[in-house]
Amino acid sequence: MPIFIKEPTQIKAVGNKPKIIKEYIGRVNSKTNAVSIAYMNSPLGWIEPGQKPEFDEYTLVVKGILTVRSEDQSEIKVTAGQAIICPRGEWVQYSTPDEGAEYVAVCLPAFSLDLVHRDT
Predict the structure, then answer these.
(1) Which of 8, 94, 98, 118 is the most buried (most CB within 10 A)?
(2) How far apart are CA 109 and CA 113, in angstroms?
(3) Which residues, in sequence order, are CB contacts of 29 under 8 Å at separation 6+?
């Protein structure tokens, strides 16, 4: 039977500025461990700690520019209508230094604090 998701759960974000995370599907909102799907709204100048997650992350930018930095310090600017895949086990850092961004993130398996392995 289909499972209807009436509304998302807002998740507390990390980083230097407030960021909105609305989880539609995942460990918190739908009790789904296999995948998480969340809408993100990140302000201009936001940056989060680097991470080396145990999940693949697929990100589709809907508005603005999302910057993704890799372990070798190279950066990819992902603009509206573009997407990026960050494979599990690789260090990445997400930010929005040029302008804010709205994007959808899909994590396989679902995002969890135990699997993200953020820099301290």
Answers:
(1) 94
(2) 12
(3) 5, 8, 9, 23
pLDDT in tens, 5-49: 999 999 999 999 999 999 999 999 999 999 999 999 999 999 999
How many structural domains is the chain composed of? 1
How far apart, in Å, do the first and last CA atoms of the chain sit? 42
Q: Pick left, alpha or beta for residue 62 (phi over 0 → left; psi -120 to 50 → alpha; otherwise beta).
A: alpha
Vertex 21, ends 102 and 19: CA angle to 5°? 70
CATH number at residue 104: 2.60.120.10
Contacts of 57 (CB under 8 A, 6+ apart): 85, 86, 92, 105, 106, 107
Pair of tokens at residue 16? 């230097």
Output the pTM of the full model: 0.95
Tokens of 69: 């930095």
